[in-house]
Amino acid sequence: MRAVHFGAGNIGRGFIGALLARSGYEVCFIDIDETLVEALNERRSYRVVRVGAAREEMQISNVRAINSRTDEECAVAAIAEADLVTTAVGANVLPLIAGLIAEGLRRRMRETDRPLNVVACENMIGAGSLLREQVYRHVTEAEKERFQRIFGFPNAVVDCIVPNQDGEDPLAVAVEPYHEWIVDQAGILGDPPAVKDMVCVKELTPYVERKLYTVNTGHAVTAYLGYARGISTIQEAIDEPSIREIVRKALDETGSLLVDKHGFDPGAHAAYIEQIIGRFQNPHISDDVTRVARSPIRKLGPKDRLVAPARQLIARGKRPENLALGIAAALAYDFDGDEEAVRLSQTVKRDGMDGALCKYAGLSREDELVRLVLEQADRLAALQKK
Ligand SMILES: NC(=O)c1ccc[n+]([C@@H]2O[C@H](COP(=O)([O-])OP(=O)(O)OC[C@H]3O[C@@H](n4cnc5c(N)ncnc54)[C@H](O)[C@@H]3O)[C@@H](O)[C@H]2O)c1
Ligand SMILES: O=P(O)(O)OC[C@@H](O)[C@@H](O)[C@H](O)[C@H](O)CO
C-alpha cells in the first residue's frame, strides 16, 4: 500500500506519517522544505518519541520524500499511484496544493476507476470540503463528474500535540502520547482506509467542534494570554494560576455550548476539559507560545476556535466573557516573526480592535461580541501589567 502525505512537518512526521507507516503503507512525503526532503531520502527512516508519564520510542521506516517545487512531475506520479492521500500543511496552504493534487488525480483517472480518498488533516471545520472545492477549480465540468464518483474528500479531525522540534536531528519528533484521528464515514469512497487507530464515524460535527472548541480554544487562550504576560511556553503559561483560571472558564463557556448543542454528558465533558489542561501541562514537552498563537488572523476567523463558539453562545443568550478576553488578547498579539501578527497589529493600530474584528472576524461594530471584547480590554491591560 502506498500513501502520499503533503507536509513533512510536526504533525506530518510525528503523527500521520508515523501512523501510516506503522499501518503498512510506504509513505511518500511531499514538501517544499529541501532540508527535510533530502534527509528523508537519505535515511528513509526517522525517530518518533512519545513523551509523557512513560516514554515510547519508535523507528518509522519505509518513507521517502519529494520536493514539489523542484520535482512536480514526480509528485504527480506519486499521487497517481497512491492508495491514500493525506495532508497536514496548514489550512491556508490547501489552495496552494490543490492544482498539484488535481493533476495527480487526473493522471490516475486515466489508468483506473478505483476510488481514492484524500484526507485533509488541518485544524478547521470542513477542511476536506474546502480542499475538494479548491481541487475542482482545476478540473473541467466533464472531469468533475468522474472526480465525484472516484475521489473522496472526507472531513476529519486530528488531535495530537506536536511542538516545534529543536533537537539536532532534523527528522526526529517528540510528540505527546495522546492521539485521535476521526474521519467522516459519509465522505469516504470505496473501502475505508486501513489505518491503525483511525476511526470512522457517521456524524463528524460533534467531534470536530468538541476538539476545535476545547483543545484549540484552550490552547489559543493560553498562548495569547501567555504572550501578553511575556511568557514563552505553553507549559509556563498554563502553570500561571491567573491564566489557568481564565482558560478553564473559557472552556466552561465552550463546554456549555457543546453540551447544549451536541448532547455531550456534562460530567464526561468536564473530565475532557481537565484532561486537556493536563495535556497542556505535560512537563516532558516544551511548546512555544508563538507556535500555538501562529496565524492570529486565521484564528480570529468567523468559523474558527474563538469567534465561532463566542457568537453561538451569544445567540443562546450567554455572555462569554472569558472567550472575549481571549479574543482581546489575540488582537494584541504582535509577535514580529509572524506575518499575520504584524498585519493584524497594523490593522488594530489603524482601525482599533473593533475595526480589526469587522475586517477579520466578519463582525459589525454593533455586534454584541465586539462590545464584549472591548469591555475586556481593561482586564487584558491589568493582566499585562502583572
Ligand atoms: N502540530 C500540531 O500539534 C498539530 C496537531 C493537529 C493538527 N495540526 C494541523 O496540521 C497542519 C500542519 O501543522 P504542523 O504543526 O505540522 O505545521 P508545520 O509547519 O510543522 O508543518 C507544515 C509542513 O507543510 C510544509 N508545506 C508548506 N507549504 C507547502 C506546500 N505548498 N506544499 C507542500 N508542503 C508544504 C512545510 O514545509 C512544513 O514542513 C496544520 O493545519 C495544523 O493546524 C497540527
Ligand atoms: O495548528 P494551529 O495553528 O491551528 O493551532 C495551534 C495548536 O493549537 C495546534 O497545532 C494543536 O497543537 C493541535 O491542534 C493539537 O491537536
Automatic annotation (TrEMBL):
Keyword hit for Membrane: no
SUPFAM superfamilies for the chain: 6-phosphogluconate dehydrogenase C-terminal domain-like, NAD(P)-binding Rossmann-fold domains
GO biological process: mannitol catabolic process
Enzyme class: oxidoreductase
Keywords: NAD, Oxidoreductase
Cited Pfam families: Mannitol_dh, Mannitol_dh_C
Coiled-coil intervals: none
Top-level taxonomic group: Bacteria
Gene Ontology cellular component annotations, sorted alphabetically: cytosol
Domain Mannitol dehydrogenase C-terminal positions: 204-345
Family listed: Belongs to the mannitol dehydrogenase family.
UniProt-recorded name of the protein: Mannitol-1-phosphate 5-dehydrogenase
Organism: Planifilum fimeticola
